[in-house]
Write a structure and sequence with these properties.
Order of helices and strands: HH
Distance between the termini: 148 Å
Structural class: mainly alpha
Strand content: under 5%
Radius of gyration: 44 Å
Number of strands: 0
Shape: rod-shaped
Helix content: over 70%
Largest sheet: none
Length: 107
């Protein structure tokens, strides 16, 4: 035998029905596996986009909570400041009432 014949053996022209069925079975199995891979990939992409959407919603909620906390802290600080001024005003009014009570009344 020549060197070329050893590397490329002669292909027989007659293919049996079993070989054809085996090839068709392999093609069908490959197609089914490919469809399974595509379905799994679609599920993963759907879950990923759902996760990303949930993360955006959670980040927005967290930002809203931070804003609310900041507003509450600001309001509390303003309230404390207002209470201090109210105490000063009440003390001023008390002093005024005490002066009125102590002053002689005209009859």
């Amino acid at each position: 035998m020549s060197d070329v014949q050893e590397r490329f053996p002669r292909i027989r022209k007659d293919i049996s029905l079993g070989n054809i069925l085996t090839i068709i079975g392999m093609i069908a199995a490959g197609f089914a596996a490919w469809m399974d891979v595509r379905t799994t990939q679609t599920k993963i992409l759907t879950q990923q986009s759902d996760f990303e959407r949930r993360m955006v919603v959670l980040e927005a909620a967290e930002l809203s909570q931070r804003t609310n906390r900041l507003q509450q802290a600001t309001l509390f600080t303003e309230l404390r400041s207002d209470i201090r001024y109210l105490r000063e005003d009440i003390a001023f009014l008390r002093e005024g009432f005490e002066r009125i009570e102590q002053s002689p009344r005209p009859h």
